[in-house]
Specification:
Its EC number is 6.3.5.6, 6.3.5.7. The protein is built from 14 helices and 15 strands. The chain is of the alpha/beta class. The strands form three sheets. An eleven-stranded mixed sheet has the order 1-3-2-6-8-7-14-15-11-9-10, with helices on both faces. A two-stranded antiparallel ribbon has the order 4-5.
Length: 457
């Protein structure tokens, strides 16, 4: 069952939360050995929480909109009493003494956390593998990656182990796994989902969210967790009307929709481009939207993104003994090396590049209301990595596979990936980007596309 379906069954007393959780735990036990999605499972705690929910229903009370829904938690999100290694050997054995605001709100809404899912070290890769936990695999093709950095949650949801899995998105880490696993991955406007109480980060590109099998599941989860949080100065107020009940009320007829396979600078695999453009055309024709030219050429902001991200990684590394830094992933180590030479000019240049990006997108959204792109520029690559060094016959750097996702982390726009079809053996996603604070437009567009082209889960 999807999350909404299951929650309504539990709330009505037609399904026991304990039964639903026990089934999820059974699926994890049977399936996860081949996928490596989970790094910690708390069966005892999950069953105890499920019994509490069943008792609440028996008293005639409502346990909440996520009643009895098994929830996978990405290991970058803290859960008090659970391991909190963040995929790093530097923190092996650490236990969280607090719970992330997002996770706490989901639990308060009735969700049942069953365990932690794998992330690359500190979430700094688009495939999910680490020295600490090994390799996580794509349920559609186990030799390939489910993406990253929320690959563990994506594998758990796509394989049917759980209906919901939390994730982070600093450069595409919700949308990329959603694309490769045939899921819905939504990154809201910056601040839409609070990141308290102890989020460490100065780059202002990190977003929290969830991976699901349906847009409605995503909307319900957002309604349960968004809203201001005194621990997160960037957190936004909850919308005046719930996302879930508003999904079908948005009139998309006449909406100005632009399509760009590359944002004017990013090479895209021809098979991916063809599959996703077909999905974009189907969306425009099926909703009565109006296609307009994108006329959008963005500059590559990979260097700016890296510069702005260096202090965040340095915060995790600076207290580590020097003799232990050799054990971290080379990508993470390179961030640490860059921190030692970072200067004010580089930071100013990065902020100016971000300002130019925001201005270019502001000009674009004066011409269109919704921007459609591929969610990933290349098909899924080997589960062990590395990330692609070439796309469409052109050499690319570390940012080539993220070229159409991370710009919207820098700018803070809401963006969602929905399944478009298959390319290279796994699913591939259609990304929909709306104006900042118009999260409902992106969600409603995704829901309309989902109705036009239901995806077999």
């Amino acid at each position: 069952m999807n999350a909404v379906e299951l929650a309504e069954e539990v709330r009505a007393g037609r399904r026991a939360a304990r039964e639903a959780v026990a089934e999820a735990l059974g699926r994890i036990e049977r399936s996860d050995g081949a996928l490596g999605a989970f790094v910690h499972v708390d069966a005892e705690g999950a069953l105890a929480r499920a019994r509490e929910i069943d008792a609440t229903v028996a008293r005639g009370e409502d346990p909440g909109p996520l009643a009895g829904v098994p929830l996978a938690v990405k290991e970058l999100h803290a859960v008090a009493g659970w391991p909190y290694a963040m995929g790093s050997v530097l923190h092996a054995g650490r236990v969280a003494d607090h719970t992330s605001t997002m996770v706490a709100r989901a639990i308060a809404a009735g969700a049942v956390p069953v365990g932690l899912t794998a992330s690359p070290e500190f979430g700094r890769a688009s495939f999910t593998a680490s020295v600490l936990h090994g390799v996580t695999r794509n349920p559609h093709a186990p030799e390939l990656t489910p993406g990253g950095s929320s690959g563990g949650s994506a594998a758990a949801v796509a394989s049917g182990m759980v209906p919901l899995g939390t994730g982070t998105d600093g450069a595409g880490s919700l949308r990329i796994p959603a694309s490769y696993c045939g899921l819905v991955g939504f990154k809201g406007t910056y601040g839409r989902v609070p990141r308290g109480p102890r989020h460490r980060g100065t780059a202002e590109n990190d977003h929290y969210g969830v991976l699901t099998r349906t847009v409605r599941d995503t909307a319900r989860f957002l309604d349960c967790v968004c809203g201001t949080d005194e621990y997160d100065r960037a957190s936004l107020p909850a919308p005046t009307a719930p996302f879930e009940t508003s999904l079908d009320g948005v009139d998309l007829r006449g909406l100005r929709v632009a399509w760009s396979p590359d944002l004017g600078y990013a090479p895209c695999d021809p098979e991916v481009a063809a599959v996703v453009e077909d999905a974009a055309r189907a969306f425009i024709a099926g909703t009565g939207a109006r296609r307009v030219p994108a006329d959008l050429t963005l500059e590559s902001c990979g260097a700016a993104f890296r510069t702005l991200s260096v202090p965040d990684v340095h915060a995790e590394l600076r207290d580590a003994p020097a003799d232990r830094l050799d054990s971290v992933h080379p990508t993470v180590r390179r961030y640490g090396d860059a921190a030692r030479t970072l200067d004010a000019d580089a930071l100013v240049d990065a902020h100016e590049a971000r300002a130019r990006l925001v201005a270019a997108l502001a000009e674009g959204f004066a011409r269109f209301d919704l921007l459609l792109t591929p969610a990933t520029q290349a098909p899924a690559f080997p589960a062990e990595g590395p990330m692609p060094a070439e796309i469409a016959g052109r050499p690319v750097d570390h940012w080539g596979a993220l070229a159409v996702t991370f710009p919207f982390n820098l700018s803070g726009h809401p963006a969602i990936s929905v399944p478009a079809g298959r390319a290279g053996g796994t699913p591939t996603g259609l990304q929909m980007v709306a104006r900042r604070h118009e999260d409902l437009v992106a969600l409603a567009a995704a829901a309309a596309y989902e109705r036009l082209r239901p995806w077999p889960t």
